[in-house]
Each structure stands twice: as structure tokens, then as C-alpha cells.
Amino acid sequence: NFISAVVPPGEIGIKFDDIGALDDVKTTLHELAILPMKRPELFSHGNLLRPCKGILLFGPPGTGKTLLAKALATEAGANFISITGSTLTSKWFGDAEKLTKALFSFASKLAPVIVFVDEVDSLLGARGGGFEHEATRRMRNEFMAAWDGLRSKDSQRILILGATNRPFDLDDAVIRRLPRRIYVDLPDADNRLKILKIFLAKENIEPDFDIRSLANATEGYSGSDLKNICIAAAYRPVQELLDEEKKGKKYDTTPALRPLNLDDFIQSK
Ligand code: ATP
């Protein structure tokens, strides 16, 4: 199967509130995608307010693009289909036409639906020179034709949401079909604090640990990097316990009861 996931809205388990920071991005997605899906009647008059068929999320790796796509489906009450550009072109390039038709007809049956295309640059990247695989070119053309073919009634309820770390690799024809482009940036210190608070909300941390210092010391870290720091800190009590066990010591608290200490993540910077 070339689709990596199909999830009904109630089962995604991620909401906008689970995403730290990115407030402007959430507001834009609300206007562009959630409102037209939930309140189509507001967009059905005149010519100016046409629901957009495609949105591009771009920005550095690990900044929450996939997370936003999933939360968007929850918030819009839409099904979520996820495909990965590179899988489609590497594994399935023989059947471009059949696959694209299947994907779009599946999507219209599941509408309202968000079709999330991760690594959209590998599926719909710039038309390569002589080196491009003929099958990749066919796949891209089929995909764009099917996308254009969405009837306007469907386009209100089927949104193609592309994500990429390499927006400059996208070809003009694709850029035109993704008229709304949203930059998902690395978090600044205030936003890193918000993200860290989400990860640490249910953890037992050293009482005098100052999360703000960690946020200040992690310039350039993505949400994903911050999560990795927290996971490493949470693992340490487990490791200590295993070490103690090896030495034949009896431990008196379970790892979960030992407070997390994140101090040296600040000092290591
Ligand atoms: P890539 O471009 O590498 O695919 P991405 O931008 O799609 O990355 P995600 O996969 O959404 O990034 O994020 C990776 C993980 O980092 C998420 O599962 C989540 O746990 C965490 N994360 C990233 N940003 C945030 C955030 N703003 N709030 C909460 N968690 C975040």
C-alpha cells in the first residue's frame, strides 16, 4: 500500500493545544482550512472566497509540520490520509496513473479529508534535467492532473497539504497549486519554553529546576530536538536504576519517582 496512514478524525489524538508555540501558523490554518471545512456555507458565495485546494508547510526539520497536519485534521473534523513523496516515487513509479486515480477517488470517498504529502519535493520536485526518471515525471503529471480535476464541490472538502524542508526544489507548476505557503520556523526562547512545558507537564522534575534557563540555552533547537533532550533526561533515572541493580544494590524508588534533572543539558551547551 502506498498510503502510510488513514486515520478518522477522532482517532488521531493530537489537537492544536498539544503543539507548543506556532500560534500564527495555527491561526492561519484555522482561516484557510478549518473554517472552509467546518462552515462551507460561509465560502459558497461570490468569487473571492474560494476554498484553497493546497497549502504548503515549509521549514527546517523537526519543527512540527507533521504534527500540525495531524492536529489540523482533528480540529477540522476531517479524515487524515498521509503519503510520503519518496515512497511513492521509489516503490510505485510503475503504476503512476492507476495509483493517483486510486488515491484521489479514495480521498473523495473520505471527504472531508486532509491529504498530507510529506516530502512533497520528492514527489512534485522541479522537473529535472535529462536525469529525471521518466516514471517520476509521469507520476508528477498524473498527480497534478488529478488534483486539477477535483470538482469545486470536492475541493472544499479535500485539502492537499504538502510539507517540505526544501521549498526551493519545488517546481513552479506545483507552487501555483499550493497558493498558500506557511513558514514553520524554529522556535525562539519564549516558544521553546512553551514547547518544553508541554513535554514536561506530567514529569516529575527537580523542584528548583528552571525550565526558562533550558529554553534560553537551546538556541537553534527544533521542537523535535527539545523532545529528544527531555527523553534523554527521562531515561537517565532508568539507567541509574539498572546500574544499581548490576551492582547488586537494592533501589528504593522506581524510575518514575526519581525527579528528572535537566541541569547538565544546560551546562553542556
Ligand atoms: P520533518 O521535516 O523532519 O518531517 P516535521 O517538521 O514534520 O519534521 P514533526 O515530525 O512534526 O516535524 O516533529 C517531530 C516531533 O517533534 C513531533 O512528534 C513532536 O513530538 C515534536 N515537536 C516538534 N515541534 C513541536 C511543537 N511545536 N510542539 C510540540 N511538539 C513538537
From TrEMBL:
Shown residues within the full chain: 687 to 955 of 992
Name of this protein: AAA+ ATPase domain-containing protein
Domain AAA+ ATPase: 51-188
Organism: Mikania micrantha
Localization of this protein: Mitochondrion outer membrane
Top-level taxon of the source organism: Eukaryota
